[in-house]
Amino acid sequence: MTTTEAGPLAIDPELAQMMDAVFAEYRTDHPPTGQARRDEQLWARLDGLGLARLTGSEETGGSGAGWFEAAELMTAAARHAVRIPLAENDVLAGWLLEAVGIGADSAIRTVATLDENRMAHGVPWASTADRVVLLWHVGEQIRTAEVDRDALQISAGVNQIGEPRDSVSVAGDLLESLTSAPAPAAVVSELELKAALVRCIQVCAALDTAVALAVEHTSTRVQFGRPLAKFQAVQNLVADSAAEAALARAATEAALSAAVHCGWSVDEIRFRVAAARSCAGHAASVVVRNIHQALGAIGTTHEHRLHQFTRAALAWRSEFGSVRHWDEQVTAIALQVGGDRLWNLIAG
Protein backbone atom coordinates (compact mmCIF):
# COMPACT_ATOMS: atom_id res chain seq x y z
CA MET A 1 0.00 0.00 0.00
CA THR A 2 1.44 3.35 -1.02
CA THR A 3 0.95 5.91 1.72
CA THR A 4 2.90 9.06 1.07
CA GLU A 5 2.35 12.45 2.62
CA ALA A 6 0.84 13.79 -0.60
CA GLY A 7 -0.82 10.58 -1.75
CA PRO A 8 -4.48 9.59 -1.58
CA LEU A 9 -3.89 7.57 1.60
CA ALA A 10 -1.84 10.25 3.33
CA ILE A 11 -0.47 9.64 6.81
CA ASP A 12 2.32 11.16 8.83
CA PRO A 13 5.56 10.00 7.12
CA GLU A 14 7.33 9.74 10.47
CA LEU A 15 4.62 7.39 11.71
CA ALA A 16 5.02 5.26 8.58
CA GLN A 17 8.78 5.12 9.08
CA MET A 18 8.34 4.12 12.71
CA MET A 19 5.97 1.30 11.77
CA ASP A 20 8.37 -0.01 9.17
CA ALA A 21 11.32 0.22 11.55
CA VAL A 22 9.53 -1.82 14.23
CA PHE A 23 8.91 -4.75 11.88
CA ALA A 24 12.28 -4.46 10.14
CA GLU A 25 14.07 -4.66 13.48
CA TYR A 26 11.94 -7.56 14.60
CA ARG A 27 12.55 -9.52 11.41
CA THR A 28 16.31 -8.95 11.69
CA ASP A 29 16.33 -10.40 15.20
CA HIS A 30 13.74 -13.12 14.54
CA PRO A 31 14.16 -14.95 11.22
CA PRO A 32 10.87 -16.41 9.98
CA THR A 33 9.93 -19.97 10.84
CA GLY A 34 7.40 -22.27 9.24
CA GLN A 35 4.86 -21.82 12.02
CA ALA A 36 3.41 -18.42 12.95
CA ARG A 37 2.65 -17.90 16.61
CA ARG A 38 1.85 -14.74 18.51
CA ASP A 39 5.06 -13.26 19.84
CA GLU A 40 4.31 -11.81 23.26
CA GLN A 41 7.37 -9.56 23.26
CA LEU A 42 6.51 -8.06 19.87
CA TRP A 43 2.88 -7.61 20.87
CA ALA A 44 3.91 -5.85 24.08
CA ARG A 45 6.05 -3.46 22.07
CA LEU A 46 3.27 -2.75 19.60
CA ASP A 47 0.88 -2.21 22.48
CA GLY A 48 3.32 0.18 24.14
CA LEU A 49 3.58 2.17 20.91
CA GLY A 50 -0.20 2.38 20.57
CA LEU A 51 -0.25 0.15 17.50
CA ALA A 52 -2.00 -2.96 18.80
CA ARG A 53 -5.39 -1.19 18.85
CA LEU A 54 -4.53 1.56 16.45
CA THR A 55 -8.09 2.42 15.36
CA GLY A 56 -9.81 1.69 18.68
CA SER A 57 -11.51 4.59 20.37
CA GLU A 58 -9.46 6.47 22.93
CA GLU A 59 -12.25 5.93 25.49
CA THR A 60 -11.58 2.18 25.40
CA GLY A 61 -7.79 2.43 25.38
CA GLY A 62 -7.25 2.60 21.63
CA SER A 63 -5.21 5.15 19.73
CA GLY A 64 -8.10 6.71 17.80
CA ALA A 65 -6.33 6.49 14.43
CA GLY A 66 -8.00 5.78 11.11
CA TRP A 67 -7.99 3.21 8.35
CA PHE A 68 -5.17 4.85 6.42
CA GLU A 69 -2.86 4.37 9.40
CA ALA A 70 -4.14 0.81 9.86
CA ALA A 71 -3.47 0.06 6.19
CA GLU A 72 0.11 1.28 6.53
CA LEU A 73 0.60 -0.84 9.65
CA MET A 74 -0.71 -3.97 7.92
CA THR A 75 1.45 -3.20 4.89
CA ALA A 76 4.58 -2.80 6.99
CA ALA A 77 4.01 -6.12 8.74
CA ALA A 78 3.37 -7.95 5.45
CA ARG A 79 6.36 -6.28 3.80
CA HIS A 80 8.66 -7.80 6.44
CA ALA A 81 6.79 -11.14 6.56
CA VAL A 82 5.81 -10.61 10.19
CA ARG A 83 2.75 -12.70 11.02
CA ILE A 84 0.64 -11.16 13.76
CA PRO A 85 -3.13 -10.67 14.26
CA LEU A 86 -3.16 -6.90 14.07
CA ALA A 87 -6.06 -6.61 11.65
CA GLU A 88 -8.13 -9.32 13.30
CA ASN A 89 -7.75 -7.72 16.73
CA ASP A 90 -8.17 -4.08 15.77
CA VAL A 91 -10.23 -3.30 12.67
CA LEU A 92 -12.34 -6.48 12.81
CA ALA A 93 -13.01 -7.84 16.32
CA GLY A 94 -12.31 -4.61 18.19
CA TRP A 95 -14.39 -2.56 15.76
CA LEU A 96 -17.28 -5.05 15.89
CA LEU A 97 -17.51 -4.90 19.68
CA GLU A 98 -17.56 -1.12 19.66
CA ALA A 99 -20.10 -1.08 16.80
CA VAL A 100 -22.60 -3.14 18.80
CA GLY A 101 -21.95 -1.24 22.02
CA ILE A 102 -20.04 -3.88 23.95
CA GLY A 103 -16.66 -2.14 24.01
CA ALA A 104 -13.18 -3.63 23.91
CA ASP A 105 -10.17 -3.68 26.19
CA SER A 106 -6.53 -4.72 25.75
CA ALA A 107 -7.26 -8.44 25.25
CA ILE A 108 -6.29 -9.93 21.88
CA ARG A 109 -9.30 -10.98 19.82
CA THR A 110 -10.45 -12.49 16.57
CA VAL A 111 -13.87 -13.00 14.96
CA ALA A 112 -15.71 -16.25 14.20
CA THR A 113 -19.01 -16.52 12.33
CA LEU A 114 -20.81 -19.68 13.38
CA ASP A 115 -22.81 -21.89 11.01
CA GLU A 116 -26.02 -23.76 11.83
CA ASN A 117 -23.94 -26.40 13.65
CA ARG A 118 -22.40 -23.76 15.92
CA MET A 119 -19.06 -24.17 14.19
CA ALA A 120 -16.69 -21.88 12.29
CA HIS A 121 -13.80 -23.02 10.11
CA GLY A 122 -10.60 -21.27 9.13
CA VAL A 123 -10.85 -18.73 11.95
CA PRO A 124 -7.70 -16.58 11.96
CA TRP A 125 -5.61 -16.83 15.13
CA ALA A 126 -8.35 -18.38 17.26
CA SER A 127 -5.97 -20.77 19.00
CA THR A 128 -3.68 -17.92 20.08
CA ALA A 129 -6.25 -15.20 20.87
CA ASP A 130 -7.35 -14.32 24.37
CA ARG A 131 -10.98 -14.06 23.30
CA VAL A 132 -13.11 -14.83 20.26
CA VAL A 133 -15.94 -12.56 19.16
CA LEU A 134 -18.77 -14.80 17.95
CA LEU A 135 -21.49 -14.07 15.43
CA TRP A 136 -24.45 -16.44 15.14
CA HIS A 137 -28.05 -16.53 13.94
CA VAL A 138 -31.01 -16.64 16.32
CA GLY A 139 -33.96 -16.93 13.99
CA GLU A 140 -33.77 -13.94 11.62
CA GLN A 141 -31.51 -12.01 13.97
CA ILE A 142 -27.73 -12.10 14.27
CA ARG A 143 -26.26 -11.93 17.76
CA THR A 144 -22.70 -11.25 18.86
CA ALA A 145 -20.74 -11.79 22.06
CA GLU A 146 -17.15 -12.41 23.07
CA VAL A 147 -15.97 -15.58 24.75
CA ASP A 148 -12.72 -16.58 26.42
CA ARG A 149 -10.73 -18.89 24.16
CA ASP A 150 -10.57 -21.59 26.83
CA ALA A 151 -14.37 -21.88 26.85
CA LEU A 152 -14.38 -22.96 23.19
CA GLN A 153 -13.50 -26.18 21.46
CA ILE A 154 -10.72 -25.27 19.05
CA SER A 155 -9.06 -27.56 16.53
CA ALA A 156 -5.80 -26.04 15.38
CA GLY A 157 -5.07 -25.54 11.69
CA VAL A 158 -2.79 -23.39 9.54
CA ASN A 159 -2.80 -21.75 6.13
CA GLN A 160 -0.02 -21.96 3.53
CA ILE A 161 2.31 -19.70 5.52
CA GLY A 162 1.73 -21.28 8.91
CA GLU A 163 -0.71 -18.72 10.30
CA PRO A 164 -3.36 -20.20 12.61
CA ARG A 165 -6.60 -20.91 10.76
CA ASP A 166 -8.58 -22.87 13.30
CA SER A 167 -11.94 -24.61 13.62
CA VAL A 168 -14.10 -23.33 16.46
CA SER A 169 -17.01 -25.20 18.01
CA VAL A 170 -19.36 -23.78 20.64
CA ALA A 171 -21.60 -25.76 22.94
CA GLY A 172 -25.28 -24.87 22.66
CA ASP A 173 -25.69 -24.22 26.38
CA LEU A 174 -22.76 -21.79 26.26
CA LEU A 175 -24.38 -19.71 23.52
CA GLU A 176 -27.61 -19.56 25.46
CA SER A 177 -25.83 -18.35 28.59
CA LEU A 178 -23.87 -15.56 26.91
CA THR A 179 -24.67 -11.92 27.36
CA SER A 180 -24.98 -10.96 23.71
CA ALA A 181 -25.98 -7.97 21.62
CA PRO A 182 -27.81 -7.77 18.32
CA ALA A 183 -25.62 -7.23 15.28
CA PRO A 184 -27.57 -5.24 12.67
CA ALA A 185 -27.33 -6.42 9.07
CA ALA A 186 -25.48 -3.23 8.13
CA VAL A 187 -22.80 -3.94 10.74
CA VAL A 188 -22.37 -7.54 9.57
CA SER A 189 -22.10 -6.38 5.96
CA GLU A 190 -19.52 -3.76 6.91
CA LEU A 191 -17.52 -6.38 8.79
CA GLU A 192 -17.49 -8.58 5.69
CA LEU A 193 -16.20 -5.74 3.52
CA LYS A 194 -13.56 -4.71 6.05
CA ALA A 195 -12.30 -8.27 6.36
CA ALA A 196 -12.12 -8.59 2.58
CA LEU A 197 -10.22 -5.32 2.25
CA VAL A 198 -7.78 -6.32 5.00
CA ARG A 199 -6.67 -9.27 2.91
CA CYS A 200 -6.48 -7.06 -0.16
CA ILE A 201 -4.07 -4.72 1.60
CA GLN A 202 -1.91 -7.64 2.72
CA VAL A 203 -1.90 -9.28 -0.73
CA CYS A 204 -0.82 -6.01 -2.33
CA ALA A 205 2.05 -5.62 0.13
CA ALA A 206 3.21 -9.18 -0.57
CA LEU A 207 3.03 -8.69 -4.35
CA ASP A 208 4.90 -5.38 -4.23
CA THR A 209 7.66 -6.97 -2.17
CA ALA A 210 7.92 -9.95 -4.51
CA VAL A 211 8.29 -7.59 -7.49
CA ALA A 212 10.94 -5.59 -5.65
CA LEU A 213 12.89 -8.78 -4.94
CA ALA A 214 12.71 -9.70 -8.62
CA VAL A 215 13.95 -6.28 -9.72
CA GLU A 216 16.87 -6.55 -7.31
CA HIS A 217 17.76 -10.09 -8.39
CA THR A 218 17.51 -9.57 -12.14
CA SER A 219 19.47 -6.32 -11.94
CA THR A 220 22.42 -7.89 -10.10
CA ARG A 221 22.44 -11.50 -11.31
CA VAL A 222 24.77 -11.87 -14.32
CA GLN A 223 24.14 -14.61 -16.88
CA PHE A 224 26.00 -15.03 -20.17
CA GLY A 225 27.97 -11.88 -19.50
CA ARG A 226 25.12 -9.50 -18.73
CA PRO A 227 22.47 -8.92 -16.04
CA LEU A 228 19.28 -10.95 -16.32
CA ALA A 229 17.37 -7.68 -16.60
CA LYS A 230 18.92 -7.14 -20.03
CA PHE A 231 17.12 -10.17 -21.47
CA GLN A 232 13.81 -9.25 -23.06
CA ALA A 233 11.99 -12.34 -21.81
CA VAL A 234 12.96 -11.53 -18.23
CA GLN A 235 12.01 -7.89 -18.72
CA ASN A 236 8.56 -8.95 -19.86
CA LEU A 237 8.06 -11.20 -16.83
CA VAL A 238 8.99 -8.47 -14.38
CA ALA A 239 7.13 -5.70 -16.24
CA ASP A 240 3.91 -7.72 -16.43
CA SER A 241 4.21 -8.51 -12.73
CA ALA A 242 4.77 -4.87 -11.82
CA ALA A 243 1.75 -3.83 -13.88
CA GLU A 244 -0.52 -6.40 -12.24
CA ALA A 245 0.69 -5.47 -8.76
CA ALA A 246 0.14 -1.78 -9.52
CA LEU A 247 -3.40 -2.46 -10.76
CA ALA A 248 -4.24 -4.41 -7.60
CA ARG A 249 -2.79 -1.67 -5.42
CA ALA A 250 -4.67 1.08 -7.29
CA ALA A 251 -7.97 -0.77 -6.97
CA THR A 252 -7.35 -1.38 -3.27
CA GLU A 253 -6.41 2.23 -2.59
CA ALA A 254 -9.50 3.40 -4.48
CA ALA A 255 -11.75 1.16 -2.39
CA LEU A 256 -10.16 2.21 0.89
CA SER A 257 -10.18 5.90 0.02
CA ALA A 258 -13.85 5.75 -0.97
CA ALA A 259 -14.76 3.89 2.23
CA VAL A 260 -12.97 6.42 4.43
CA HIS A 261 -14.28 9.51 2.67
CA CYS A 262 -17.80 8.34 1.82
CA GLY A 263 -18.54 5.68 4.44
CA TRP A 264 -18.69 1.91 4.39
CA SER A 265 -22.45 1.82 3.91
CA VAL A 266 -22.76 3.63 0.56
CA ASP A 267 -23.87 1.47 -2.35
CA GLU A 268 -20.70 1.60 -4.42
CA ILE A 269 -18.36 0.42 -1.65
CA ARG A 270 -19.26 -3.25 -2.15
CA PHE A 271 -18.47 -2.91 -5.85
CA ARG A 272 -15.15 -1.23 -5.14
CA VAL A 273 -14.11 -3.81 -2.57
CA ALA A 274 -15.19 -6.65 -4.87
CA ALA A 275 -13.21 -5.11 -7.75
CA ALA A 276 -10.16 -4.72 -5.54
CA ARG A 277 -10.38 -8.33 -4.36
CA SER A 278 -10.82 -9.52 -7.95
CA CYS A 279 -7.83 -7.51 -9.17
CA ALA A 280 -5.64 -8.63 -6.28
CA GLY A 281 -6.64 -12.27 -6.69
CA HIS A 282 -5.86 -12.40 -10.39
CA ALA A 283 -2.70 -10.33 -9.95
CA ALA A 284 -1.41 -12.90 -7.46
CA SER A 285 -1.57 -15.62 -10.12
CA VAL A 286 0.45 -13.57 -12.61
CA VAL A 287 2.99 -12.22 -10.14
CA VAL A 288 3.69 -15.54 -8.43
CA ARG A 289 4.14 -17.37 -11.73
CA ASN A 290 6.25 -14.69 -13.40
CA ILE A 291 8.48 -13.79 -10.49
CA HIS A 292 9.36 -17.40 -9.77
CA GLN A 293 10.24 -17.82 -13.45
CA ALA A 294 12.40 -14.70 -13.37
CA LEU A 295 14.35 -15.89 -10.31
CA GLY A 296 14.60 -19.49 -11.44
CA ALA A 297 15.75 -22.19 -9.06
CA ILE A 298 17.02 -19.82 -6.37
CA GLY A 299 13.49 -18.49 -5.89
CA THR A 300 12.18 -21.93 -4.92
CA THR A 301 14.63 -22.49 -2.08
CA HIS A 302 13.70 -22.15 1.57
CA GLU A 303 16.65 -19.83 2.15
CA HIS A 304 15.47 -17.23 -0.34
CA ARG A 305 12.88 -14.76 0.93
CA LEU A 306 10.65 -14.89 -2.14
CA HIS A 307 8.42 -17.71 -0.93
CA GLN A 308 7.55 -15.72 2.20
CA PHE A 309 5.62 -13.32 -0.03
CA THR A 310 4.39 -15.42 -2.94
CA ARG A 311 2.89 -18.07 -0.65
CA ALA A 312 1.42 -15.33 1.52
CA ALA A 313 -0.30 -13.72 -1.46
CA LEU A 314 -1.80 -17.06 -2.51
CA ALA A 315 -2.95 -17.84 1.03
CA TRP A 316 -4.50 -14.46 1.75
CA ARG A 317 -6.34 -14.09 -1.57
CA SER A 318 -8.55 -17.08 -0.75
CA GLU A 319 -9.59 -15.86 2.72
CA PHE A 320 -12.81 -13.95 3.45
CA GLY A 321 -14.09 -14.96 0.04
CA SER A 322 -12.40 -16.71 -2.88
CA VAL A 323 -11.33 -15.03 -6.10
CA ARG A 324 -14.32 -16.61 -7.82
CA HIS A 325 -16.68 -15.29 -5.15
CA TRP A 326 -15.50 -11.72 -5.64
CA ASP A 327 -15.50 -12.07 -9.44
CA GLU A 328 -19.14 -13.07 -9.18
CA GLN A 329 -19.84 -10.12 -6.90
CA VAL A 330 -18.39 -7.73 -9.49
CA THR A 331 -20.48 -9.34 -12.23
CA ALA A 332 -23.70 -9.34 -10.20
CA ILE A 333 -23.39 -5.68 -9.21
CA ALA A 334 -22.51 -4.64 -12.77
CA LEU A 335 -25.57 -6.44 -14.13
CA GLN A 336 -27.76 -4.98 -11.43
CA VAL A 337 -26.87 -1.34 -12.12
CA GLY A 338 -27.05 -1.76 -15.90
CA GLY A 339 -25.12 -0.09 -18.66
CA ASP A 340 -26.36 3.42 -17.99
CA ARG A 341 -24.98 3.52 -14.44
CA LEU A 342 -21.99 1.19 -14.74
CA TRP A 343 -19.47 3.81 -15.83
CA ASN A 344 -20.47 6.13 -13.00
CA LEU A 345 -20.01 3.23 -10.59
CA ILE A 346 -16.53 2.53 -11.97
CA ALA A 347 -15.41 6.13 -12.15
CA GLY A 348 -16.94 7.13 -8.83
From TrEMBL:
Its cofactor is FAD. The keyword Transferase does not apply. Residues 199-317 form the Acyl-CoA dehydrogenase/oxidase C-terminal domain. Pfam families: Acyl-CoA_dh_1. Keywords: FAD, Flavoprotein, Oxidoreductase. One of its GO terms (molecular function) is acyl-CoA dehydrogenase activity. The keyword Flavoprotein applies. Belongs to the acyl-CoA dehydrogenase family. PANTHER family: ACYL-COA DEHYDROGENASE, ACYL-COA DEHYDROGENASE FADE28. This is Acyl-CoA dehydrogenase. It comes from Mycolicibacterium murale.
